[in-house]
Amino acid sequence: MVFSSLEFIYLFLPATLVGFFLLRHFDAERGIIAWLIAASLFFYGWWNPWYLVLLIGSVLINYGLHRVLVKVKDPWVLGLGIAANILVLAYYKYADFFISNMNALTGLDYALAGVALPLAISFFTFQQVSFLYDTYRGDLVECDFPRYALFIVFFPQLIAGPIVLQKDTIPQFTLSVFKNRMGVNLSVGLTLFVIGLFKKIVLADGVVPYVSTAFGLAETTEGVPVEAAWIGALSYTFQIYFDFSGYCDMALGVARMFGIRLPINFNSPYKSKSIVEFWRRWHITLSRFLRDYLYIPLGGSRRGAGRRHINLMATMALGGLWHGASWTFVVWGGLHGFYLVVNHTWSRLWGQSSKPALLPAWLCSGLAQALTLLAVIVAWVFFRAESFGGASNILAGMSGLSQPLEPKLWASLSQDTLTIWLHLGALTAIVFLLPNSIEIARRYGPVLADGAESVKNSAVGQHIAWRPSPAWAATMGLGFFVALVQLYRLEDITEFIYFNF
User: Model confidence over 482-496: pLDDT tens digits?
Assistant: First the structure.
């Protein structure tokens, strides 16, 4: 079920909240946990009930492995558990990818498995791997099976994250948390949900036609005009930004309605002044997982700069492959690995330099931000393109290497695209001039405390900070109305981009 669907907004969420508040009234802690588990399983099974067997089986087996690891800290048990989880993920997500590549390399013609990708398998697999690893290390919050099951299947974060660790949410599954500050939780939760819904339906989906046109042209022709290429690349840059940001806001908001705070997962990444900073702001929980459970076990930076660079490239390439079974995703991850290597090398060579800057600090900051964003945009082309040919055509167009258009046609095209450029300009202003939703709601703790510390409130953010007031109620009501009108105008519900991973 999609957060932005009418079924979720009108039926599922209200019904789940009613059941929650009834059980909350009678101080039924176990009842609340059981109710949220049942609601989450219904939420997941809405798409395909058969995959509930996979999800429930995965939860049961991994909890059993956890109990074994509690009694005996056997590395073989840990290895078996992690290998089993990764093999299941690999089968469903990469079977056809491996077969098609094997056929291409050997000239054979093995039939593809044709396995459909179960929703959320990447996310709940990573969470259970982290749980087993934390159990083995002894860095674990004690929990019973119902709390473990809710930790995995809790519907606000089940489908596309954030990737939560056991220490993030399991301690919150208590009656004292469920009963705390009902009015504040509902108000903050609804505010975040409406902001996220508006981002998804109005801002992200509003540029989808531009993206589809440009990247469709790149897959079907040899050349893409420079303006069309830049419109496509920039439109996708904003689409994925508002799509993922909207999802993160809605996930935070829905969880908060039940009194649960999730970790921060998105923090204005396009304002970053380096790629290192970008990955501290974009999909923050994935970056944390890759750092703690892949990069550091590989050796991290403990064995010198050369080994660190290899570990960074391997981590980001695997992170790219995690996003999808395609070499374009691997290239996207590899590009970011290369960016990180350059970033760290630059910092090592020049970061500690005491030489006076040749340019003013504000100009250096602006150039660093522009260069970082340009690198991100180039990488997004591979993330979105359906093939290397399509990506190459977009990049050739962006660099001006495509076939030039006739002057008359160019003048006509430029005139027709004025509205598009105004649209993209408005999105640029929203991204760079306005505070994000976490900054707006910061006074009321929208995320876990650890994540809140990384959010800096700008002067603009302080000026328009959310508070219970008629003005904010009217603003959110208007935003909800506009999003609903646009939702009714859509022929089909568009899934969030990260539902595909």
Answer: 999 988 887 666 788
Cβ of 403: how many Cβ atoms within 10 Å?
11
DSSP 308-375: HHHHHHHHHHHHHHHH-SSHHHHHHHHHHHHHHHHHHHHHHHHTT--SPPSS-HHHHHHHHHHHHHHH
Residue 441: pLDDT over 70: yes
Catalytic residue (choose from 323, 336, 344, 423): 323
Element (H, E) at 19: helix 13-25
Reduced 3-state DSSP string for 69-120? HHHCCCHHHHHHHHHHHHHHHHHHHHHHHHHHHHHHHHCCCCCCCCCCCCCC
CB distance 234 to 377 below 8 Å = yes
Residues 74 and 33: their CA atoms lie apart, in Å, by 31
Task: Render pLDDT for 264-279 as a digit per residue (tens, 0 to 9).
Answer: 999 999 999 999 999 9
> What pLDDT is stored for residue 410 in this prediction?
47
The more confidently predicted of residues 453 and 135 is 135
d(CA 231, CA 399): 13
pTM of this structure: 0.92
Annotated active-site residue 323? The verdict is: yes
Cβ-based neighbours of 455, under 8 Å, separated by 6 or more: 264, 267, 438, 439, 442, 447
Note the pLDDT tens digit of each residue in 234-243. Answer: 999 999 999 9
pLDDT in tens, 376-402: 999 999 999 999 999 999 999 998 876
Residue 192 to residue 251: CA distance in whole angstroms: 9
How far apart (Å, rounded) are the C-alpha atoms in residues 382 and 335?
A: 9
CA dihedral over 145, 148, 149, 150, signed as positive or negative = positive
DSSP secondary structure letters along 280-301: TTBSHHHHHHHIIIIITTTTTT
Q: How far is CA 183 from CA 187, 297, 437, 442, in A?
A: 6, 44, 19, 16
Look up residue 266 and give its DSSP letter.
Answer: B
